[in-house]
Amino acid sequence: MMNVAQLMVESFQRHGVTDIFGQSLPTAFFLAAEKAGMRQIAYRTENAGGAMADAYARVSQRIALVGAQNGPAATLLVAPLAEAMKASSPVIAIVQEVPVAQRDRNAFQEFDHVGLFSACTKWIKQLDDPTRINEYIDLAVTIATTGRPGPVVLLVPRDVLLMEVAQHDTTPRTASLGRFPLDRTRPAHSGVVLAANALTQAKHPLIVAGGGVHLSGASGALTRLQELSGIPVATTNMGKGSVSELHELSIGVVGNAFGKQAPNYLARSLVTEADVVLFIGTRTNENGTDAWTLFPSNATYIHLDVDGIEVGRNYQSIRLVGDALLGIEDLIDELAARDLTMREQSRRAAVSQIRLAKEAAKERSSRLRSDSASALLTPQHVMAVVDQHMSAGDIAVADASYSSIWMTNFLTAKSVGQRFISPRGLAGLGWGLPMAMGAQTAQSDKRVVCVSGDGGFGHVWAEMESAVRNNHPVISIVLNNSIFGFQKHAELSAFAMSTSAIEISPVDHTAIALAVGAQARRVSTVAELELALTQAFAMREFFLIEVMTDPDAYPPIAAWDEHPPVATA
């Protein structure tokens, strides 16, 4: 005989689960998990725990588990589960419910969790029948990993967790379903032929790779398509790393931060003048398309995505509904049998233009790194130095807002499939550090570097203690400019003034880090930053580097080229 908690643990282990993000609740479940050899990764708030699980799933290609108490703890999972829903991350939340006998009686912290999670999950199930635990967990895992991946919530009453159940009373299950994509589907062959025809005949084709390329594990195939076709590849924020940005046909990240000061701006016409655009694994959302103004209205569009609802949502397209990896492989097969002479001609022109853009960016970066006499560092300074220290095997993570733009625009994807993680589903502020911890848990042999602004970092100071306690050797870079930068500059651009909530009181983040037992340094020059990074990269401990930066610095938001964020006199 075993109880329901033990049965759940056994079932999740069958699906390959080794780590669970939690804070001891539901207690019966976590006690059983730790006894069975699973590792509990502690968090300080459920909000952060959900973000950890999200990043863990993205990096590991496996389901991620997070646990929480009912009531207020459960409500704090809504935001990270909403991010996971938009970002297509298979997170499974185990939420404790009030005992069955106390249901609908205003029990302590009782809440309508089904209503609470209905908009931010693929499926919610209350587990009341001990004999059906195995089949419901298999169903939860299947729903989370099949089709477009996404979050699932299992609600387990406290008394049900302790109910004993005989093995012969349960439905026997042996399948292991915890990796994704679980079921790969091919797009229709007729659509692949139409797409190949359009790409073969195009004069100025373009491929735009989104986060679905990473979810499908299709980076290697995309690189083969890039090389065979000679078509330049741009990526969205979430697609960064789908191809190496050192490749001569890689444009880099495009979208709303593709303004005149963007490092790849000189390649912009390859995007704005494309006649055939192939979207792969992208929602064609506002930021990725610069509010749907970046790509030409008269282009022919092809859209490959596992979610048929997203295909053609914003750009009428040749529909390729299916797995990104299989779809790319089918396109490669079609193109390999065709005359690609036209592609060779356009390839030479694209390579030349991309080379000019990269040379200009390299010169600018070199100038910034040597500018050690600068009175106040800009984030561009910081990223130029960090980029020199990071290797092709490192994982970069960024918080929302400006931090994501600094990472995606000014750090280089040096290898095919390198991961750059950020909360771009809903772009919730404060999730950078916990996402870095989740990524570090998923791949403990990797170095993880996290970029946050002081505004967002204020949401998660407490998780530094969790990082120290969990032995997460994350290098956390906090850009301290004492303002909510994106908000201030957006207000200045739109209204030429900003509200009183923008300024932040001076905070010594280094002191907070030292107080929880972390390594930490505060820096204000290039030389000090170089020294701190050298020290941090040589260690395997959580290390905070607080960089005092210029509050007037802002990234190359295209909309601000004509309306710069400047206050009126």
From TrEMBL:
Alphabetically ordered keywords of this record: Thiamine pyrophosphate
Entry GO CC: acetolactate synthase complex
GO biological process: isoleucine biosynthetic process; L-valine biosynthetic process
Domain Thiamine pyrophosphate enzyme central: 195-329
Domain annotation Thiamine pyrophosphate enzyme TPP-binding: ranges: 400-547
Signal peptide: none
Domain of life: Bacteria
InterPro entries in the cross-refs: DHS-like_NAD/FAD-binding_dom, THDP-binding, Thiamin_PyroP_enz_cen_dom, Thiamin_PyroP_enz_TPP-bd_dom, TPP_enz, TPP_enzyme_TPP-bd
Domain Thiamine pyrophosphate enzyme N-terminal TPP-binding: 2-115
Listed CDD domains: TPP_enzymes (cd00568), TPP_PYR_POX_like (cd07035)
An example Gene Ontology molecular-function term: thiamine pyrophosphate binding
Any Pfam family the entry gives: TPP_enzyme_M
Family: Belongs to the TPP enzyme family.
NCBIfam families, sorted: PRK06112.1
UniProt-recorded name of the protein: Acetolactate synthase catalytic subunit
Source organism per UniProt: Cryobacterium suzukii
